[in-house]
Amino acid sequence: MSAAQSEALAPGPSVESVPSYLSETYSWAYLNPRNLRWLDNSLVVSSILWGNAGRLMRAAAAEFEPGQRILQAACVYGRFSEMLAHQVGNTGQLEIVDVAPIQIANVRRKLSAYPQVRSRRGDLTLPLGKRYQGVCCFFLLHEVPAEQRSRIVDNLLSAVGPGGKAVFVDYHRPSRLNPLAPLMSLVFRLLEPYATSLLDTPIDSLSPQATDFDWHRRTLFGGLYQHVVATRRSLTEFPPSRRQP
Ligand SMILES: C[S@@+](CC[C@H](N)C(=O)[O-])C[C@H]1O[C@@H](n2cnc3c(N)ncnc32)[C@H](O)[C@@H]1O
User: Domain Methyltransferase, which positions (predicted)?
Assistant: First the structure.
């Protein structure tokens, strides 16, 4: 491990420089170096997603094409970034943005063998200032309070170039017949305080730019998960206020 990575894995400064919703609610999951080591494991991720991690990740990665320049909005435990890196291939580019220095150090370690991957620290509630052919947001929105969630969706849509797509994979309100519904409601109440506000909120209602996109949503696993694709219509011009370099 390099000196920079060791420094970023130290707990103090990373906790102070992240949004309060993250340090107050999810410090144990994303900012604690000891927990990161066992949580960042495909078996753990698969268990948390009831065995659906592989298919959710594969379906999200399959939305993108070799050679594309895509953004992964926040780090994800397990092998998702690796899948995206394979999908864009060595003629493409994957940029990963996360607000937590410890997560950036971790993803750099995990993906050091992939020259097509860049990662940097950044807060997705702030404009990205760049455009991509694709943007992928995997299980971030349910961990963010409603106000910041809208800003993130708006910023991600702004970052999609003409003809490009934004892919959101996240929790959704399970059907009443889903036997996991009561347990998941308890999990959300105890561990995921912002998730409930996402369950009944269509992602396309979170940004005024949604009308510039064609939206397709499907739900999986008895409605517990949603896979949403927003494709920017090719002829849509960026409003002057949102025009980016
Ligand atoms: C993508 S979400 C959860 C993913 C999923 N639960 C998993 O298996 O990893 C977790 C990441 O979001 C990051 N994050 C939260 N708020 C953010 C923000 N405003 N900007 C950038 N990254 C953010 C956290 O630092 C954390 O690394």
Answer: 70-164
Distance CA 17, CA 212 (A): 34
75 band by pLDDT with thresholds 50, 70 and 90:
very high
Domain chopping of the chain, boundaries: 3-242
122-140 tens-digit pLDDT: 999 999 999 999 999 999 9
Instruction: Determine the Cα–Cα distance for residues 139 and 195; give it in Å rounded to an integer.
Output: 10
Pocket lining: 140 vs ligand 1, CB cutoff 6 Å: yes
Specify the amino acid at residue 122: G
Tell me, what's the pLDDT at 234?
Answer: 81
CB 88 within 8 A of CB 68: yes
Which of 15, 16, 22, 44 is the pocket-test mutation for ligand 1 (most atoms within 8 Å of CB)? 22
Q: Are 65 and 39 in contact (CB under 8 A)?
A: no
Give the ligand 1 atom nearest the CA of 45.
8
Residue type present at position 208: P
Reported as a single tens digit per residue, the pLDDT across 137-183 is 999 999 999 999 999 999 999 999 999 999 999 999 999 999 999 99
Q: Which two tokens stand for residue 77?
A: 């435990």
Q: Is 99 in the pocket of ligand 1 (CB under 6 A)?
A: yes
